[in-house]
Amino acid sequence: MLIDNRLKLIILITVIITSLFILPANSRQQKNIFLLFSKPAQMNQEYFLDLSTLLKTNTEQYNFSAVNINKLTSEGLNKKINAIDSCVISIDQDSLEAVLAVRSQQAIFSTGVSQIELDNLFYQYQQFSTRFSGIYSGQSFKRQLFLAKVINHESKNVTVIFGRQSRYYLSEYKKTSEQLLFNLSFEILRQQEPVLQSFYRINPTGGFLMILNEAHIYSIQNLQSLLISSYKKQIPMIGSKKSDTKIAALASVYTPLNLLAKEAAEGVLDLCQKNKAMPLKYSQHYKVNINKEIAKHLNYSHLDEKKLQLEIARLEGQSIKRLQMEKANEK
Description:
Blueprint: H1 2-20, E1 31-37, H2 45-57, E2 62-68, H3 74-82, E3 86-90, H4 93-101, E4 107-113, H5 115-125, E5 132-136, H6 141-151, E6 157-162, H7 170-179, E7 183-188, H8 195-202, E8 208-210, H9 220-232, E9 237-239, H10 242-247, E10 251-254, H11 257-274, E11 281-282, E12 287-290, H12 292-297, H13 305-330
Helix pairs in contact: 1-2, 2-11, 6-13
């Protein structure tokens, strides 16, 4: 079944790519948009097809091509995207790193990369005057806190285990926690240390354990281990991706792929048309996903995904108004 699904995906991608290269003769001098991807068998089929369709149908003034970077050498990729005026959108980290490595002077829009990795690449290539924009994968720590608040209004404690990369966001997380009136308990994972050992060192009492978008630390194996230990302490986990809920989280705030595709398509077109790279950001779109089995065992069977989403939106609106008033008072 897995082989059949992969074969279907490869066939679909081949059809899309083939159709996109059949261009009218009078359109070949137009600006180009390249959609870069890698490992077609592993990427999300829904997102790729939605994004491809949106870009193809909404870019009349551009030629659009989907490109598998694994079929090109670095030199071949460089020639392809730099030979003509173009923009680039990448849908995973490998394709982003590939286009950055050839020192492309074209505008680049990134999706499918965590804040930790995307910020790192942004600062690394800033010295080369790369025009760079994008949307982080997953959702923000702030929205995770909003979700924790609407799940349990009385809980004021959150726990975070930082990795070697995410530790650089510690001050930002402290500030966000204080703004939303949470007490933040944390540990920075030591080298070669098991995640569980860090969790036991914190020894949290109540509240929520937040799952960060740091793949090495919050791997499937580590999340499953944390699930057992956090369950014993009755400390639910809150995720930032839908996959977190499937593995270990009581609930997650996540970005729906169809809405991410729409936002990314708008972002890359804006980048191409205005020739201005907007700041890296999290998607403005989100939904809530609940693991019903975990909810049942932790006495949260009453939770409703749509109601939680509406409550987050309400709290977020209040937070924005409060910040605006504080800024106005400072003036």
